[in-house]
């Protein structure tokens, strides 16, 4: 099975050549191009929608030489006004004219359209031309059009407004913005249409600019040197503005241009994994020749493309028929891309049976409501799905085996399995007892009356008198005998989100004073993430409650925003941080006469976490994980950094996603403070969450009192020469800004005030979210 779709990106010259070499075997030159492309193994192709004649007519109408006579200007003005009132093409201005030609084709909108021109007149006429081209594409039932890239950061808002207008006007076509993965050029004003000899009709002459397109970040940037962080972020920030102004429209996607050489450390580029990259533009110029003369990609581009394969992109191979490399021919490029696909680690993991990636096919980025195990009785199919996880149950068996081994050989052991389901833990318990050569009395408790039927069947046919079944809620029933070991599998994706603490509160009374629980403890962990896909999925219901509900998700199109290294001043923690822990059994709970807690207040929790954001990104939500200690050194984990060491390829749990109602932009080098609460009353448990963003900026201290107030452990303290926005991949020479030192050390506590006085850094708040799910108004778990 192919993960990527291969396409050839043809240009106007290819169409002209096809017209000259038209074979009578095909009705039209375009049909001939399509047939030839498919014969070469391409699944689709891109074609320019218009010809040079359209560009010439538009330029003659809307631009005018400064040397033109008054009569020529008047004639052009009349032609332009006539066109503006009724836009349309002439026959020789388009490349495609029939439905059968357009079938399956991706069209390229005229690249010379300046939708972000600083000149109002050019921008206005470019918008009319774009609407005309999209209307014609819609007429031919073309499904996707790739738009010309924005070039001018100062006017990208105008570009975005025009795209949003076109999405409204043409509701059945998808638009894709073509952008280089970053801007490799020296930033200069650039314009493909303007020249010293042209001015828009009806507008005053403006400053001329070169004819080659170039990205303009800002007029102000010309006055100061650009570091590589700015260059690498520039195009992403354009995209972020465009898709935000288009309200994250699902018909707006991204065509990522891999023409520029990529840095050897890809951390700064990871943000693209969270975006809706539908197409990857890969020209022959990006390839280099290997020792034998065949085309290959530089290693950083190889790595990026391998990682991107999991998103099933369409690869647009451009200029591969020009003989740029001396060996291999056109087919060598396609074969090489297929080689990268086959050697892609994410693709290999997805194709390997038994891996989480393989198990989760079809569930990637699909929002699922967490289970309500106390309120609902699970169907057999749900049990069946969880029982397919061999890793979880082997871990449980090993934990039980070690617990049995640690008990005296001749002593009777009483085991209580709280929440037996359809019996997988019971079976593993009996197997562990056999391995340990121990005898035990096993009680299996289950409240689901339907699952209890399955337990009775297994008792009659497999277990016999080895197991005693007890029907009822573990918080209400009694057991015949106190247990030495209490075993449960009540954990959720966030550890406690399926009410394991509350359930086990009711079961702890079954334990002897020296009894143990498996699991013995579990922790919840959080990280900030960006994902336009998940954000769109969460708000698709148009109901505010959907954006205040945690979801179980198998992450794919996501980017964890926090850095793997702590900030220079030591304020921020690691990339993924622990929120809280639950331990079982616990002795500090006030119990009633039955051994049950009087209230649930002891299970309330809160956490305040600080994350360092090394690269600019947009916060769409929080990623939740858990880690559990079953017994001794045996555990379960979905923590991304530790799961492979603790319980590799465990299938039972996907992470938890806490969405935010509105995206929060985080600049490079900022600090994100996340607050999260686990709250409860006598009937429900729910989560509330909130985030604030801060940036360290130069400030001035006006008094010793202010210095003393800011010199505590909660204030930033930087060593001299530390940049305001240190990059996570600072060792990469590609990313080094020669004007700044990248070294940063934490000064001793005694020198904090001195450094604050010398440097005057202060933490300035730049944004925050609303409080999500206050009082459990949108989502809760019922007790």
From TrEMBL:
<dbReference type="GO" id="GO:0032259">
    <property type="term" value="P:methylation"/>
</dbReference>
<dbReference type="Pfam" id="PF17286">
    <property type="entry name" value="PRMT5_C"/>
</dbReference>
<dbReference type="InterPro" id="IPR007857">
    <property type="entry name" value="Arg_MeTrfase_PRMT5"/>
</dbReference>
<dbReference type="GO" id="GO:0006355">
    <property type="term" value="P:regulation of DNA-templated transcription"/>
</dbReference>
<dbReference type="InterPro" id="IPR035248">
    <property type="entry name" value="PRMT5_C"/>
</dbReference>
<dbReference type="InterPro" id="IPR025799">
    <property type="entry name" value="Arg_MeTrfase"/>
</dbReference>
<feature type="binding site">
    <location>
        <begin position="473"/>
        <end position="474"/>
    </location>
    <ligand>
        <name>S-adenosyl-L-methionine</name>
    </ligand>
</feature>
<feature type="active site" description="Proton donor/acceptor">
    <location>
        <position position="498"/>
    </location>
</feature>
<dbReference type="InterPro" id="IPR029063">
    <property type="entry name" value="SAM-dependent_MTases_sf"/>
</dbReference>
<comment type="similarity">
    <text>Belongs to the class I-like SAM-binding methyltransferase superfamily.</text>
</comment>
<feature type="active site" description="Proton donor/acceptor">
    <location>
        <position position="489"/>
    </location>
</feature>
<dbReference type="GO" id="GO:0005634">
    <property type="term" value="C:nucleus"/>
</dbReference>
<dbReference type="InterPro" id="IPR035075">
    <property type="entry name" value="PRMT5"/>
</dbReference>
<protein>
    <recommendedName>
        <fullName>Protein arginine N-methyltransferase</fullName>
    </recommendedName>
</protein>
<feature type="binding site">
    <location>
        <position position="383"/>
    </location>
    <ligand>
        <name>S-adenosyl-L-methionine</name>
    </ligand>
</feature>
<feature type="site" description="Critical for specifying symmetric addition of methyl groups">
    <location>
        <position position="386"/>
    </location>
</feature>
<dbReference type="Pfam" id="PF05185">
    <property type="entry name" value="PRMT5"/>
</dbReference>
<feature type="binding site">
    <location>
        <begin position="392"/>
        <end position="393"/>
    </location>
    <ligand>
        <name>S-adenosyl-L-methionine</name>
    </ligand>
</feature>
<dbReference type="GO" id="GO:0016274">
    <property type="term" value="F:protein-arginine N-methyltransferase activity"/>
</dbReference>
<keyword id="KW-0949">S-adenosyl-L-methionine</keyword>
<feature type="domain" description="PRMT5 TIM barrel">
    <location>
        <begin position="41"/>
        <end position="342"/>
    </location>
</feature>
<keyword id="KW-0808">Transferase</keyword>
<dbReference type="InterPro" id="IPR035247">
    <property type="entry name" value="PRMT5_TIM"/>
</dbReference>
<feature type="domain" description="PRMT5 arginine-N-methyltransferase">
    <location>
        <begin position="357"/>
        <end position="518"/>
    </location>
</feature>
<dbReference type="Pfam" id="PF17285">
    <property type="entry name" value="PRMT5_TIM"/>
</dbReference>
<dbReference type="GO" id="GO:0016301">
    <property type="term" value="F:kinase activity"/>
</dbReference>
<feature type="binding site">
    <location>
        <position position="446"/>
    </location>
    <ligand>
        <name>S-adenosyl-L-methionine</name>
    </ligand>
</feature>
<dbReference type="GO" id="GO:0005829">
    <property type="term" value="C:cytosol"/>
</dbReference>
<keyword id="KW-0489">Methyltransferase</keyword>
<feature type="domain" description="PRMT5 oligomerisation">
    <location>
        <begin position="521"/>
        <end position="781"/>
    </location>
</feature>
<keyword id="KW-0418">Kinase</keyword>
